[in-house]
Amino acid sequence: MTVKPVRVTIWNEYRHERQDPAVRAHYPAGIHAVLAAALEAAGCTVRVATLDEPEHGLDAATLAATDVLVWWGHLAHEAVADAVVDRVQQRVLDGMGLVVLHSAHESKIFRRLMGTTCKVMWRERGERERVWVVQPAHPVAAGLPEYFDLPQSEMYGEPTDIPAPDELVFISWFQGGEVFRSGGAYTRGRGRIFYFSPGHETFPIYHHPLVQRVIVNAVRWAAPNDFSGAPVAGIRQGGAHRPDPLEPLD
Predict the structure, then answer these.
(1) pLDDT value of residue 15
(2) Mean pLDDT of all residues in the chain?
(3) Domain ranges in the chain?
(4) Is it the case that residue 102 has pLDDT exceeding 90?
(5) pLDDT at 196 over 50
(6) Which residue, 49, 50, 46, is CA-closest to 7?
(7) Which residues, including other chains, have CB under 8 Å from residue 139's CB and lie 6 or more apart?
């Protein structure tokens, strides 16, 4: 059986890289370019969309051809049009996967799907982060060691207004002593969502091979199961099949 490649759209605000030399030094072609290279190397079909394109690059046809949307944003969450957020939300509810990275926890689409402000405690000092794998059997943890270290990272800490995930896969410890639920899986409608917090723009975190592995694993996990919408034998639209009162039982 031929397995079709996962169709990924990477959405990147693409403002930091053009405005801040410290960010451009790590990501001269944009954060999306590093993510795209990792996903293409893993066999995915990748396209890129950015904030300043018409409809932010997320028109209906693009989303219809997307199995998993990867979202990175920071400076301009509120610049994303509500109509585009509505469109993305509906696609997630219909089964498109969504992988939300780092500061995109405050993106409109993640807040909409989570139903909270999704605010976190944070500190930017370039401290060490240790990412612990707390559910090694989860598909997003495939191929990872017990933990891995990021030499410089932005601290995200508890308490947080990001809801507790359905499945917690990663917990991070920071040099200052804080901990954070740094990788969690959610389901909304038919769509799978994974949030992964490591990835501050002024550090080369997305170049780290184990961070790339997490993102590839998350994309593969979030990819939808085939669903045509056609009724399944024995199931009535709207709920499980229950016999009609006059229908004979076997």
Answers:
(1) 87
(2) 90
(3) 7-115+182-227
(4) yes
(5) yes
(6) 46
(7) 217, 220, 221
